[in-house]
Design brief:
By secondary structure, this protein is α+β, with helices and mostly antiparallel strands. The protein has 10 helices and 38 strands. Helix 7 runs parallel beside helix 8. It is elongated and about 90 Å long. The chain starts with a helix and ends with a strand.
Protein backbone atom coordinates (compact mmCIF):
# COMPACT_ATOMS: atom_id res chain seq x y z
CA UNK A 1 0.00 0.00 0.00
CA UNK A 2 2.90 2.35 0.82
CA UNK A 3 4.39 1.72 -2.64
CA UNK A 4 1.01 2.51 -4.20
CA UNK A 5 0.82 5.94 -2.56
CA UNK A 6 4.43 6.71 -3.54
CA UNK A 7 3.64 5.84 -7.17
CA UNK A 8 0.52 7.99 -7.13
CA UNK A 9 2.47 10.92 -5.69
CA UNK A 10 5.13 10.60 -8.38
CA UNK A 11 2.45 10.44 -11.07
CA UNK A 12 0.87 13.61 -9.70
CA UNK A 13 4.21 15.35 -10.11
CA UNK A 14 5.04 13.94 -13.53
CA UNK A 15 1.70 14.42 -15.30
CA UNK A 16 1.46 18.20 -14.81
CA UNK A 17 5.04 18.52 -16.04
CA UNK A 18 4.13 16.62 -19.20
CA UNK A 19 1.07 18.79 -19.78
CA UNK A 20 3.25 21.92 -19.57
CA UNK A 21 5.82 20.77 -22.11
CA UNK A 22 6.39 23.41 -24.81
CA UNK A 23 5.06 22.78 -28.26
CA UNK A 24 7.65 20.91 -30.36
CA UNK A 25 9.79 23.06 -32.59
CA UNK A 26 9.25 22.65 -36.31
CA UNK A 27 11.68 23.15 -39.17
CA UNK A 28 9.06 25.21 -40.95
CA UNK A 29 6.60 26.63 -38.37
CA UNK A 30 3.26 27.76 -39.77
CA UNK A 31 1.17 30.83 -39.06
CA UNK A 32 -1.80 32.61 -40.57
CA UNK A 33 -1.47 35.80 -42.56
CA UNK A 34 -4.02 37.32 -40.17
CA UNK A 35 -4.91 35.96 -36.72
CA UNK A 36 -8.65 36.10 -37.48
CA UNK A 37 -8.36 34.11 -40.71
CA UNK A 38 -9.11 30.41 -41.12
CA UNK A 39 -7.96 27.70 -43.53
CA UNK A 40 -9.27 24.90 -45.68
CA UNK A 41 -6.55 22.51 -46.88
CA UNK A 42 -6.90 21.05 -50.37
CA UNK A 43 -5.56 17.57 -51.24
CA UNK A 44 -5.30 16.87 -54.95
CA UNK A 45 -5.87 13.34 -56.35
CA UNK A 46 -3.93 11.13 -53.89
CA UNK A 47 -4.09 7.95 -56.01
CA UNK A 48 -0.36 8.23 -56.72
CA UNK A 49 0.34 7.80 -53.03
CA UNK A 50 -1.89 4.77 -52.49
CA UNK A 51 -1.02 2.73 -55.59
CA UNK A 52 2.53 1.97 -54.45
CA UNK A 53 3.26 0.83 -50.91
CA UNK A 54 6.51 2.83 -50.89
CA UNK A 55 4.55 6.06 -51.60
CA UNK A 56 1.90 5.62 -48.94
CA UNK A 57 3.94 7.27 -46.12
CA UNK A 58 3.76 10.55 -48.10
CA UNK A 59 -0.04 10.48 -47.85
CA UNK A 60 0.30 9.81 -44.13
CA UNK A 61 2.73 12.73 -43.86
CA UNK A 62 0.22 15.08 -45.51
CA UNK A 63 -2.62 14.25 -43.13
CA UNK A 64 -0.27 14.13 -40.11
CA UNK A 65 0.97 17.62 -41.02
CA UNK A 66 -2.62 18.84 -41.29
CA UNK A 67 -3.45 17.40 -37.86
CA UNK A 68 -0.31 19.01 -36.42
CA UNK A 69 -1.30 22.45 -37.76
CA UNK A 70 -5.02 22.48 -36.94
CA UNK A 71 -4.62 25.26 -34.38
CA UNK A 72 -1.78 27.20 -36.00
CA UNK A 73 -3.68 27.57 -39.26
CA UNK A 74 -7.18 27.48 -37.73
CA UNK A 75 -8.11 24.66 -40.11
CA UNK A 76 -11.89 24.32 -40.49
CA UNK A 77 -11.73 21.35 -42.85
CA UNK A 78 -9.90 19.40 -45.53
CA UNK A 79 -11.02 19.11 -49.15
CA UNK A 80 -9.99 16.29 -51.48
CA UNK A 81 -10.52 16.19 -55.25
CA UNK A 82 -10.91 12.39 -55.34
CA UNK A 83 -9.23 9.42 -56.99
CA UNK A 84 -8.34 8.03 -53.59
CA UNK A 85 -7.22 4.84 -55.32
CA UNK A 86 -5.82 3.83 -58.68
CA UNK A 87 -8.20 0.88 -58.94
CA UNK A 88 -11.43 0.52 -57.01
CA UNK A 89 -11.80 -3.26 -57.31
CA UNK A 90 -8.88 -5.25 -58.60
CA UNK A 91 -7.16 -8.27 -57.04
CA UNK A 92 -4.31 -8.43 -59.57
CA UNK A 93 -2.04 -5.36 -59.51
CA UNK A 94 -1.83 -3.82 -62.97
CA UNK A 95 0.61 -1.44 -64.61
CA UNK A 96 1.29 1.67 -62.48
CA UNK A 97 0.61 -0.11 -59.18
CA UNK A 98 1.85 -2.88 -56.89
CA UNK A 99 -1.23 -2.83 -54.65
CA UNK A 100 -4.63 -4.46 -54.91
CA UNK A 101 -7.80 -2.35 -54.79
CA UNK A 102 -8.38 -3.30 -51.16
CA UNK A 103 -4.81 -2.39 -50.16
CA UNK A 104 -5.23 1.02 -51.78
CA UNK A 105 -8.55 1.69 -50.01
CA UNK A 106 -6.99 0.67 -46.71
CA UNK A 107 -4.04 3.01 -47.30
CA UNK A 108 -6.40 5.93 -48.03
CA UNK A 109 -8.46 5.06 -44.97
CA UNK A 110 -5.36 4.98 -42.72
CA UNK A 111 -4.21 8.37 -43.96
CA UNK A 112 -7.55 10.06 -43.29
CA UNK A 113 -7.88 8.29 -39.92
CA UNK A 114 -5.42 10.87 -38.55
CA UNK A 115 -8.13 13.50 -39.05
CA UNK A 116 -11.11 11.61 -37.61
CA UNK A 117 -12.51 13.48 -34.62
CA UNK A 118 -10.14 16.40 -35.31
CA UNK A 119 -11.50 18.10 -38.42
CA UNK A 120 -14.08 17.33 -41.11
CA UNK A 121 -12.78 16.21 -44.51
CA UNK A 122 -14.82 16.33 -47.70
CA UNK A 123 -14.05 14.06 -50.65
CA UNK A 124 -15.25 14.20 -54.26
CA UNK A 125 -14.96 10.68 -55.62
CA UNK A 126 -13.02 10.35 -58.88
CA UNK A 127 -13.24 8.08 -61.91
CA UNK A 128 -10.69 5.66 -60.40
CA UNK A 129 -12.90 5.24 -57.33
CA UNK A 130 -15.55 3.45 -59.44
CA UNK A 131 -15.71 0.23 -61.45
CA UNK A 132 -12.77 -2.18 -61.67
CA UNK A 133 -9.96 -0.07 -63.10
CA UNK A 134 -11.64 3.25 -63.86
CA UNK A 135 -15.39 3.77 -64.06
CA UNK A 136 -16.54 0.80 -66.10
CA UNK A 137 -19.63 0.87 -63.85
CA UNK A 138 -21.01 2.54 -60.72
CA UNK A 139 -19.56 0.09 -58.18
CA UNK A 140 -17.46 1.79 -55.47
CA UNK A 141 -16.09 0.88 -52.04
CA UNK A 142 -16.21 4.49 -50.87
CA UNK A 143 -19.34 4.06 -48.65
CA UNK A 144 -17.72 1.09 -46.91
CA UNK A 145 -14.50 2.88 -45.99
CA UNK A 146 -16.02 6.35 -45.37
CA UNK A 147 -19.42 5.93 -43.69
CA UNK A 148 -21.01 8.86 -41.86
CA UNK A 149 -20.26 7.27 -38.48
CA UNK A 150 -16.52 7.21 -39.11
CA UNK A 151 -15.75 10.87 -38.35
CA UNK A 152 -17.92 12.26 -35.53
CA UNK A 153 -17.37 15.82 -36.79
CA UNK A 154 -19.35 15.08 -39.94
CA UNK A 155 -22.47 14.90 -37.80
CA UNK A 156 -21.89 18.51 -36.71
CA UNK A 157 -21.60 19.98 -40.22
CA UNK A 158 -23.18 17.63 -42.78
CA UNK A 159 -26.56 19.17 -43.58
CA UNK A 160 -27.76 17.06 -46.50
CA UNK A 161 -26.89 14.05 -48.66
CA UNK A 162 -28.52 12.00 -51.41
CA UNK A 163 -27.91 8.36 -52.44
CA UNK A 164 -25.20 7.40 -54.89
CA UNK A 165 -25.72 5.80 -58.31
CA UNK A 166 -26.49 2.47 -56.68
CA UNK A 167 -29.16 3.93 -54.40
CA UNK A 168 -26.90 3.62 -51.35
CA UNK A 169 -26.79 6.47 -48.78
CA UNK A 170 -23.30 7.90 -49.13
CA UNK A 171 -21.19 11.02 -48.65
CA UNK A 172 -20.42 10.96 -52.38
CA UNK A 173 -23.17 13.57 -52.82
CA UNK A 174 -23.28 15.59 -49.61
CA UNK A 175 -23.33 19.15 -48.32
CA UNK A 176 -21.46 20.59 -45.35
CA UNK A 177 -22.08 23.90 -43.58
CA UNK A 178 -19.47 26.05 -41.83
CA UNK A 179 -19.93 29.42 -40.17
CA UNK A 180 -17.61 32.31 -39.42
CA UNK A 181 -18.38 35.76 -37.95
CA UNK A 182 -16.72 37.49 -40.92
CA UNK A 183 -17.83 35.21 -43.75
CA UNK A 184 -21.22 34.24 -42.44
CA UNK A 185 -22.32 30.86 -43.81
CA UNK A 186 -20.20 28.72 -46.12
CA UNK A 187 -21.80 25.71 -47.80
CA UNK A 188 -19.56 23.09 -49.44
CA UNK A 189 -21.32 20.67 -51.78
CA UNK A 190 -19.43 17.63 -53.06
CA UNK A 191 -20.54 15.37 -55.88
CA UNK A 192 -19.88 12.01 -57.45
CA UNK A 193 -17.70 11.70 -60.56
CA UNK A 194 -19.55 12.68 -63.77
CA UNK A 195 -22.57 13.80 -61.72
CA UNK A 196 -26.07 12.86 -62.88
CA UNK A 197 -28.79 15.40 -63.60
CA UNK A 198 -30.51 14.61 -60.29
CA UNK A 199 -27.29 15.46 -58.44
CA UNK A 200 -26.93 18.84 -60.16
CA UNK A 201 -30.63 19.53 -59.59
CA UNK A 202 -30.27 18.70 -55.89
CA UNK A 203 -27.16 20.89 -55.54
CA UNK A 204 -28.79 23.84 -57.30
CA UNK A 205 -31.97 23.71 -55.24
CA UNK A 206 -30.00 23.34 -52.01
CA UNK A 207 -27.80 26.37 -52.76
CA UNK A 208 -30.86 28.45 -53.67
CA UNK A 209 -32.96 27.37 -50.69
CA UNK A 210 -34.06 29.89 -48.08
CA UNK A 211 -31.61 28.42 -45.58
CA UNK A 212 -28.53 28.73 -47.82
CA UNK A 213 -29.36 31.45 -50.35
CA UNK A 214 -27.12 33.94 -48.53
CA UNK A 215 -24.24 31.49 -48.02
CA UNK A 216 -21.04 31.49 -50.02
CA UNK A 217 -21.26 28.13 -51.80
CA UNK A 218 -18.30 26.00 -52.94
CA UNK A 219 -19.03 23.13 -55.34
CA UNK A 220 -16.61 20.21 -55.59
CA UNK A 221 -16.47 17.60 -58.31
CA UNK A 222 -13.66 15.46 -59.69
CA UNK A 223 -13.60 16.03 -63.46
CA UNK A 224 -14.44 19.48 -64.80
CA UNK A 225 -11.67 21.20 -66.78
CA UNK A 226 -8.39 20.66 -68.58
CA UNK A 227 -4.98 21.92 -67.50
CA UNK A 228 -3.76 25.48 -67.91
CA UNK A 229 -1.79 24.28 -70.96
CA UNK A 230 -5.13 23.66 -72.66
CA UNK A 231 -6.31 27.15 -71.62
CA UNK A 232 -8.29 25.64 -68.76
CA UNK A 233 -11.11 24.78 -71.13
CA UNK A 234 -14.03 22.85 -69.73
CA UNK A 235 -14.22 19.13 -70.41
CA UNK A 236 -16.87 18.49 -73.07
CA UNK A 237 -16.72 14.71 -73.46
CA UNK A 238 -17.01 11.58 -71.34
CA UNK A 239 -14.26 9.02 -71.94
CA UNK A 240 -15.66 6.38 -69.59
CA UNK A 241 -18.36 3.74 -69.80
CA UNK A 242 -20.14 5.22 -66.80
CA UNK A 243 -23.45 6.79 -67.81
CA UNK A 244 -25.49 8.96 -67.44
CA UNK A 245 -23.73 12.08 -66.25
CA UNK A 246 -22.53 15.60 -67.02
CA UNK A 247 -19.26 16.93 -68.38
CA UNK A 248 -17.64 20.16 -67.28
CA UNK A 249 -19.45 22.15 -69.96
CA UNK A 250 -22.78 20.71 -68.83
CA UNK A 251 -22.03 21.31 -65.13
CA UNK A 252 -21.38 24.96 -65.97
CA UNK A 253 -24.56 25.37 -68.02
CA UNK A 254 -26.88 23.41 -65.74
CA UNK A 255 -25.58 24.33 -62.27
CA UNK A 256 -22.89 27.00 -62.00
CA UNK A 257 -24.12 29.53 -64.51
CA UNK A 258 -27.72 29.73 -63.22
CA UNK A 259 -26.76 29.73 -59.53
CA UNK A 260 -26.46 33.09 -57.79
CA UNK A 261 -24.30 31.99 -54.87
CA UNK A 262 -22.01 29.16 -56.06
CA UNK A 263 -18.83 31.23 -56.20
CA UNK A 264 -16.02 28.68 -56.27
CA UNK A 265 -15.58 25.31 -57.98
CA UNK A 266 -12.81 22.93 -57.00
CA UNK A 267 -11.83 19.91 -59.09
CA UNK A 268 -8.96 17.58 -59.95
CA UNK A 269 -8.68 14.73 -62.48
CA UNK A 270 -6.52 16.20 -65.29
CA UNK A 271 -2.77 15.71 -65.32
CA UNK A 272 0.21 15.57 -67.68
CA UNK A 273 3.13 13.15 -67.32
CA UNK A 274 5.76 15.86 -67.73
CA UNK A 275 6.45 16.93 -64.14
CA UNK A 276 5.68 20.55 -65.13
CA UNK A 277 3.66 22.07 -62.32
CA UNK A 278 1.95 24.69 -64.47
CA UNK A 279 0.46 21.97 -66.68
CA UNK A 280 -1.07 20.07 -63.78
CA UNK A 281 -3.11 22.91 -62.33
CA UNK A 282 -5.66 25.29 -63.83
CA UNK A 283 -7.68 28.36 -62.93
CA UNK A 284 -10.36 30.35 -64.72
CA UNK A 285 -13.05 32.92 -63.97
CA UNK A 286 -16.43 33.19 -65.68
CA UNK A 287 -19.51 35.26 -64.91
CA UNK A 288 -22.75 33.57 -63.99
CA UNK A 289 -26.23 34.64 -65.10
CA UNK A 290 -26.31 37.26 -62.32
CA UNK A 291 -23.07 38.84 -63.53
CA UNK A 292 -21.06 37.58 -60.55
CA UNK A 293 -17.68 35.90 -60.89
CA UNK A 294 -17.43 32.14 -60.47
CA UNK A 295 -13.87 31.02 -59.72
CA UNK A 296 -12.87 27.56 -60.94
CA UNK A 297 -9.70 25.85 -59.72
CA UNK A 298 -8.20 22.50 -60.73
CA UNK A 299 -5.47 21.01 -58.52
CA UNK A 300 -4.00 17.56 -59.23
CA UNK A 301 -0.60 16.54 -57.86
CA UNK A 302 -0.42 12.85 -58.78
CA UNK A 303 2.39 13.16 -61.37
CA UNK A 304 4.34 15.97 -59.72
CA UNK A 305 6.76 13.71 -57.87
CA UNK A 306 8.31 12.12 -60.96
CA UNK A 307 5.47 11.35 -63.35
CA UNK A 308 3.11 8.37 -63.36
CA UNK A 309 5.77 6.17 -61.75
CA UNK A 310 6.92 8.82 -59.28
CA UNK A 311 6.21 9.31 -55.58
CA UNK A 312 2.61 10.44 -56.04
CA UNK A 313 2.85 14.21 -55.66
CA UNK A 314 5.82 15.40 -53.54
CA UNK A 315 3.39 16.15 -50.69
CA UNK A 316 1.97 19.27 -52.39
CA UNK A 317 -1.07 20.81 -50.73
CA UNK A 318 -3.13 23.90 -51.41
CA UNK A 319 -3.75 26.14 -48.40
CA UNK A 320 -6.87 28.25 -48.81
CA UNK A 321 -6.75 31.00 -46.20
CA UNK A 322 -10.07 32.82 -45.80
CA UNK A 323 -9.29 36.37 -44.72
CA UNK A 324 -11.39 38.28 -42.17
CA UNK A 325 -12.53 40.79 -44.80
CA UNK A 326 -15.16 38.19 -45.71
CA UNK A 327 -14.26 38.14 -49.40
CA UNK A 328 -10.59 37.26 -49.97
CA UNK A 329 -9.13 33.74 -50.16
CA UNK A 330 -5.34 33.60 -50.21
CA UNK A 331 -4.20 30.53 -52.15
CA UNK A 332 -0.77 29.09 -51.28
CA UNK A 333 0.93 25.88 -52.47
CA UNK A 334 2.97 24.07 -49.81
CA UNK A 335 4.66 20.71 -49.29
CA UNK A 336 5.33 19.28 -45.81
CA UNK A 337 7.72 16.81 -47.48
CA UNK A 338 10.11 19.69 -48.16
CA UNK A 339 9.10 21.76 -45.15
CA UNK A 340 9.88 19.02 -42.63
CA UNK A 341 13.65 19.49 -42.99
CA UNK A 342 15.79 22.63 -42.59
CA UNK A 343 17.80 21.37 -45.59
CA UNK A 344 14.83 21.57 -47.97
CA UNK A 345 12.39 24.02 -46.37
CA UNK A 346 13.37 26.71 -48.88
CA UNK A 347 11.56 24.54 -51.44
CA UNK A 348 8.41 24.07 -49.35
CA UNK A 349 6.44 26.97 -50.86
CA UNK A 350 5.87 27.41 -54.57
CA UNK A 351 5.73 31.04 -55.61
CA UNK A 352 4.80 31.13 -59.30
CA UNK A 353 1.66 33.15 -60.15
CA UNK A 354 -0.35 29.94 -60.63
CA UNK A 355 0.81 28.67 -57.20
CA UNK A 356 0.28 31.78 -55.11
CA UNK A 357 -2.64 34.12 -55.77
CA UNK A 358 -5.71 35.70 -54.22
CA UNK A 359 -9.33 34.96 -55.02
CA UNK A 360 -11.64 37.88 -54.27
CA UNK A 361 -15.08 36.31 -54.04
CA UNK A 362 -16.87 39.64 -54.06
CA UNK A 363 -15.68 43.16 -54.67
CA UNK A 364 -19.07 44.75 -54.89
CA UNK A 365 -20.03 48.31 -54.06
CA UNK A 366 -23.48 49.88 -54.12
CA UNK A 367 -23.63 53.47 -55.26
CA UNK A 368 -26.54 55.86 -55.77
CA UNK A 369 -27.50 59.24 -57.12
CA UNK A 370 -30.27 61.01 -58.98
CA UNK A 371 -33.00 58.40 -59.61
CA UNK A 372 -30.99 55.18 -59.48
CA UNK A 373 -29.10 52.61 -57.42
CA UNK A 374 -26.28 50.56 -58.95
CA UNK A 375 -24.18 47.61 -57.77
CA UNK A 376 -20.73 47.52 -59.33
CA UNK A 377 -18.11 44.78 -59.40
CA UNK A 378 -15.07 46.91 -58.64
CA UNK A 379 -12.63 44.09 -59.44
CA UNK A 380 -13.97 43.95 -63.01
CA UNK A 381 -14.18 47.73 -63.47
CA UNK A 382 -11.59 50.33 -64.35
CA UNK A 383 -11.90 54.04 -65.06
CA UNK A 384 -15.16 54.57 -66.97
CA UNK A 385 -15.35 50.88 -67.95
CA UNK A 386 -17.89 49.83 -65.31
CA UNK A 387 -19.20 46.29 -64.74
CA UNK A 388 -22.75 46.71 -63.46
CA UNK A 389 -23.98 43.67 -61.53
CA UNK A 390 -27.40 45.13 -60.67
CA UNK A 391 -29.26 48.36 -61.42
CA UNK A 392 -32.59 49.83 -60.37
CA UNK A 393 -34.26 53.16 -60.96
CA UNK A 394 -37.44 54.78 -59.76
CA UNK A 395 -39.16 54.25 -63.12
CA UNK A 396 -38.80 50.45 -62.89
CA UNK A 397 -42.32 49.16 -63.74
CA UNK A 398 -41.81 45.81 -61.95
CA UNK A 399 -41.30 47.31 -58.50
CA UNK A 400 -44.91 47.78 -57.34
CA UNK A 401 -43.87 50.98 -55.59
CA UNK A 402 -46.70 53.57 -55.68
CA UNK A 403 -46.01 56.36 -58.12
CA UNK A 404 -46.14 59.08 -55.46
CA UNK A 405 -43.26 57.35 -53.66
CA UNK A 406 -41.28 56.82 -56.86
CA UNK A 407 -41.63 60.54 -57.54
CA UNK A 408 -40.60 61.38 -53.96
CA UNK A 409 -37.38 59.33 -53.98
CA UNK A 410 -35.00 61.34 -56.19
CA UNK A 411 -32.37 62.32 -55.47
CA UNK A 412 -31.37 59.00 -53.90
CA UNK A 413 -28.62 59.76 -51.39
CA UNK A 414 -27.78 56.56 -49.49
CA UNK A 415 -27.96 52.82 -50.23
CA UNK A 416 -27.11 49.81 -48.07
CA UNK A 417 -27.08 46.09 -48.76
CA UNK A 418 -29.09 44.45 -45.96
CA UNK A 419 -30.77 41.17 -44.97
CA UNK A 420 -27.84 38.99 -45.97
CA UNK A 421 -27.20 41.09 -49.10
CA UNK A 422 -30.56 40.05 -50.55
CA UNK A 423 -32.10 43.54 -50.34
CA UNK A 424 -31.15 47.17 -50.89
CA UNK A 425 -32.31 49.82 -48.41
CA UNK A 426 -32.08 53.39 -49.62
CA UNK A 427 -33.14 56.90 -48.75
CA UNK A 428 -33.95 59.79 -51.01
CA UNK A 429 -35.51 63.22 -51.33
CA UNK A 430 -38.71 62.51 -49.40
CA UNK A 431 -38.96 58.73 -49.04
CA UNK A 432 -37.24 55.53 -47.93
CA UNK A 433 -37.63 52.15 -49.68
CA UNK A 434 -36.49 48.53 -49.42
CA UNK A 435 -36.06 46.56 -52.69
CA UNK A 436 -35.52 42.81 -53.07
CA UNK A 437 -32.54 42.33 -55.38
CA UNK A 438 -33.84 39.13 -56.98
CA UNK A 439 -37.51 39.94 -57.52
CA UNK A 440 -36.96 43.72 -57.75
CA UNK A 441 -40.15 44.14 -55.70
CA UNK A 442 -40.52 46.92 -53.16
CA UNK A 443 -40.98 45.38 -49.68
CA UNK A 444 -41.28 48.60 -47.66
CA UNK A 445 -41.67 52.31 -48.22
CA UNK A 446 -42.46 55.38 -46.15
CA UNK A 447 -42.67 59.15 -46.59
CA UNK A 448 -39.56 60.62 -44.91
CA UNK A 449 -38.77 64.23 -45.80
CA UNK A 450 -35.10 64.73 -46.71
CA UNK A 451 -34.02 61.36 -45.29
CA UNK A 452 -30.27 60.77 -45.54
CA UNK A 453 -29.61 57.36 -44.01
CA UNK A 454 -31.39 54.24 -42.76
CA UNK A 455 -30.61 50.84 -41.32
CA UNK A 456 -32.45 47.62 -40.44
CA UNK A 457 -33.21 46.97 -36.77
CA UNK A 458 -34.16 43.62 -35.21
CA UNK A 459 -37.71 42.50 -35.79
CA UNK A 460 -37.96 43.82 -39.37
CA UNK A 461 -37.94 47.46 -38.39
CA UNK A 462 -36.27 50.39 -40.08
CA UNK A 463 -34.51 53.37 -38.47
CA UNK A 464 -34.32 56.50 -40.63
CA UNK A 465 -32.34 59.72 -40.06
CA UNK A 466 -34.06 62.79 -41.56
CA UNK A 467 -32.23 66.03 -42.29
CA UNK A 468 -33.30 69.67 -42.48
CA UNK A 469 -36.80 69.93 -43.89
CA UNK A 470 -40.35 70.61 -42.90
CA UNK A 471 -41.33 67.36 -41.21
CA UNK A 472 -37.66 66.32 -41.02
CA UNK A 473 -34.94 66.96 -38.41
CA UNK A 474 -35.68 63.65 -36.71
CA UNK A 475 -34.95 59.99 -36.10
CA UNK A 476 -37.88 57.77 -37.07
CA UNK A 477 -38.60 54.04 -36.76
CA UNK A 478 -40.98 52.08 -38.99
CA UNK A 479 -42.23 48.51 -39.20
CA UNK A 480 -41.59 47.39 -42.75
CA UNK A 481 -44.34 44.81 -42.55
CA UNK A 482 -46.69 47.79 -42.71
CA UNK A 483 -45.38 50.41 -45.14
CA UNK A 484 -45.59 53.92 -43.78
CA UNK A 485 -46.47 52.93 -40.19
CA UNK A 486 -44.50 55.17 -37.81
CA UNK A 487 -43.53 53.48 -34.51
CA UNK A 488 -41.22 56.06 -32.92
CA UNK A 489 -39.90 59.58 -33.48
CA UNK A 490 -37.24 61.66 -31.76
CA UNK A 491 -36.06 65.16 -32.63
CA UNK A 492 -32.61 65.22 -34.27
CA UNK A 493 -31.42 68.33 -36.07
CA UNK A 494 -29.96 67.53 -39.52
CA UNK A 495 -30.11 63.76 -39.17
CA UNK A 496 -27.54 62.23 -41.54
CA UNK A 497 -26.51 58.79 -40.29
CA UNK A 498 -28.09 55.64 -38.86
CA UNK A 499 -26.06 52.49 -38.12
CA UNK A 500 -27.22 49.43 -36.17
CA UNK A 501 -24.46 47.67 -34.16
CA UNK A 502 -25.65 44.11 -33.70
CA UNK A 503 -22.79 43.11 -31.39
CA UNK A 504 -23.70 45.90 -28.94
CA UNK A 505 -27.43 45.85 -29.66
CA UNK A 506 -27.34 49.60 -30.07
CA UNK A 507 -28.36 52.09 -32.75
CA UNK A 508 -25.96 54.96 -33.50
CA UNK A 509 -27.36 58.10 -35.10
CA UNK A 510 -25.55 61.16 -36.46
CA UNK A 511 -26.90 64.71 -36.37
CA UNK A 512 -25.54 68.16 -37.13
CA UNK A 513 -23.18 68.32 -34.15
CA UNK A 514 -23.98 65.19 -32.11
CA UNK A 515 -23.60 61.43 -32.21
CA UNK A 516 -26.22 59.50 -30.26
CA UNK A 517 -26.60 55.96 -28.96
CA UNK A 518 -30.04 54.34 -28.60
CA UNK A 519 -31.16 51.09 -26.98
CA UNK A 520 -34.24 49.10 -27.89
CA UNK A 521 -37.11 49.48 -25.42
CA UNK A 522 -40.23 47.29 -25.16
CA UNK A 523 -39.16 45.99 -28.56
CA UNK A 524 -41.38 42.92 -28.67
CA UNK A 525 -44.32 44.67 -27.02
CA UNK A 526 -47.23 46.59 -28.45
CA UNK A 527 -45.51 49.99 -28.15
CA UNK A 528 -41.82 49.59 -29.14
CA UNK A 529 -39.51 52.60 -28.88
CA UNK A 530 -35.88 53.66 -28.52
CA UNK A 531 -34.16 54.91 -25.39
CA UNK A 532 -31.34 57.44 -25.85
CA UNK A 533 -28.52 56.12 -23.65
CA UNK A 534 -25.58 58.41 -24.54
CA UNK A 535 -24.79 61.49 -26.63
CA UNK A 536 -21.46 63.00 -27.70
CA UNK A 537 -20.52 66.35 -29.23
CA UNK A 538 -18.75 66.09 -32.60
CA UNK A 539 -15.27 67.62 -33.02
CA UNK A 540 -16.80 69.99 -35.59
CA UNK A 541 -20.24 70.81 -36.95
CA UNK A 542 -22.10 69.42 -39.94
CA UNK A 543 -21.90 65.68 -39.29
CA UNK A 544 -22.52 64.02 -42.60
CA UNK A 545 -21.72 60.31 -42.87
CA UNK A 546 -21.68 57.50 -40.31
CA UNK A 547 -20.32 54.02 -41.00
CA UNK A 548 -19.22 51.02 -38.94
CA UNK A 549 -15.64 49.74 -38.77
CA UNK A 550 -16.13 47.18 -36.00
CA UNK A 551 -18.25 46.62 -32.92
CA UNK A 552 -16.07 49.18 -31.11
CA UNK A 553 -15.40 51.77 -33.82
CA UNK A 554 -17.37 54.09 -36.08
CA UNK A 555 -16.31 56.49 -38.82
CA UNK A 556 -17.79 59.99 -38.77
CA UNK A 557 -17.38 62.61 -41.49
CA UNK A 558 -17.91 66.33 -41.04
CA UNK A 559 -17.30 69.43 -43.16
CA UNK A 560 -13.52 69.52 -42.91
CA UNK A 561 -12.33 66.06 -41.89
CA UNK A 562 -13.05 62.42 -41.04
CA UNK A 563 -12.87 60.94 -37.53
CA UNK A 564 -12.77 57.54 -35.84
CA UNK A 565 -15.07 57.29 -32.85
CA UNK A 566 -14.09 54.69 -30.24
CA UNK A 567 -17.33 53.65 -28.57
CA UNK A 568 -15.70 52.16 -25.46
CA UNK A 569 -13.30 55.05 -24.93
CA UNK A 570 -15.87 57.63 -26.07
CA UNK A 571 -13.21 59.52 -28.03
CA UNK A 572 -12.94 61.06 -31.49
CA UNK A 573 -9.55 60.90 -33.23
CA UNK A 574 -8.62 61.97 -36.78
CA UNK A 575 -8.88 59.19 -39.37
CA UNK A 576 -5.38 59.54 -40.81
CA UNK A 577 -6.02 58.38 -44.41
CA UNK A 578 -8.63 61.15 -44.85
CA UNK A 579 -7.69 63.59 -42.11
CA UNK A 580 -8.19 67.14 -43.33
CA UNK A 581 -10.05 66.04 -46.47
CA UNK A 582 -13.21 68.20 -46.69
CA UNK A 583 -16.69 67.26 -47.88
CA UNK A 584 -16.34 63.48 -47.66
CA UNK A 585 -19.86 62.27 -48.35
CA UNK A 586 -19.40 58.55 -47.67
CA UNK A 587 -16.59 56.40 -46.34
CA UNK A 588 -16.06 52.63 -45.94
CA UNK A 589 -12.98 51.21 -44.20
CA UNK A 590 -11.78 47.67 -43.50
CA UNK A 591 -9.18 47.86 -40.74
CA UNK A 592 -7.98 44.28 -41.31
CA UNK A 593 -6.83 45.04 -44.87
CA UNK A 594 -6.58 48.82 -44.89
CA UNK A 595 -8.99 48.99 -47.82
CA UNK A 596 -10.77 52.30 -48.13
CA UNK A 597 -13.66 53.32 -50.43
CA UNK A 598 -15.10 56.85 -50.34
CA UNK A 599 -16.83 59.65 -52.21
CA UNK A 600 -16.41 63.40 -51.79
CA UNK A 601 -18.41 66.38 -53.01
CA UNK A 602 -17.00 67.75 -56.28
CA UNK A 603 -20.10 69.24 -57.96
CA UNK A 604 -21.93 71.00 -55.10
CA UNK A 605 -22.99 67.95 -53.01
CA UNK A 606 -22.34 65.43 -55.77
CA UNK A 607 -19.53 63.58 -57.53
CA UNK A 608 -19.06 61.27 -60.49
CA UNK A 609 -16.12 59.41 -58.94
CA UNK A 610 -15.67 56.54 -56.48
CA UNK A 611 -12.22 56.46 -54.86
CA UNK A 612 -10.43 53.30 -53.69
CA UNK A 613 -7.28 52.90 -51.61
CA UNK A 614 -5.32 49.68 -50.95
CA UNK A 615 -5.33 49.06 -53.84
CA UNK A 616 -5.70 52.50 -55.38
CA UNK A 617 -8.30 52.95 -58.12
CA UNK A 618 -10.83 55.53 -59.28
CA UNK A 619 -14.08 54.57 -60.98
CA UNK A 620 -16.01 57.21 -62.90
CA UNK A 621 -19.69 57.20 -63.88
CA UNK A 622 -19.94 60.27 -66.09
CA UNK A 623 -23.69 60.14 -66.73
CA UNK A 624 -24.86 60.03 -63.08
CA UNK A 625 -24.25 62.49 -60.23
CA UNK A 626 -23.38 60.21 -57.29
CA UNK A 627 -23.82 60.87 -53.61
CA UNK A 628 -22.81 57.87 -51.49
CA UNK A 629 -21.12 54.52 -52.03
CA UNK A 630 -21.33 51.51 -49.73
CA UNK A 631 -19.16 48.37 -49.77
CA UNK A 632 -21.19 45.19 -49.90
CA UNK A 633 -19.49 42.91 -47.42
CA UNK A 634 -19.57 39.12 -47.84
CA UNK A 635 -20.12 38.77 -44.10
CA UNK A 636 -23.74 38.18 -43.25
Amino acid sequence: MKKYFICMALAALILPMKAQLPEPRRADPQQLTHPDAFTFVLLGDPQGYTKYDVNQPLFDLCTAWIADNLNRLNIKGVLCTGDLVEQNENIVPQRHTNQTGREMWEAASRAFARLDGKTPYIISCGNHDYGYLHSENSMTHFPEYFPMERNPLWKTCCVDAIPNRNGIPSLENAAFEFTDPNWGGILIITSEFYPRDEVLDWAGKLAASERFRNHTVIFMTHGYMETQKEDARLIDRNEYALEPGNTGVQIWEKLLRPSENIRLLICGHTANDNNIFAENVAFRVDRNASGRNVYQMMFNVQTLGGGWEGNGGDGWLRLLEFMPDGRTIKVRTYSPLFGISPTTRHLAYRNEPYDRFDIVIDDLVATCGEDRVMIIDAAQSDGENINYVWQWNTADPTTALPKEYRDALPPINDCKSVNGNSRILFTGGSAVALIDRTTRKCLFYARTPNSHSADILPGNRVAVALSISEGGNSLEVYDYGTPGRLLFRDTLYSGHGAVWNDARQRLYVLGYNVLREYALRNWTGADPSLNKTREWQLPEDDGHDLSRISKDKLLVTATNSVYIFDISEETFTPFEPLAGIPEVKSVNFDETTGRLVFTKAEEEWWTRNIYFRNPEKTLTIPNVRLYKTRVISSSK
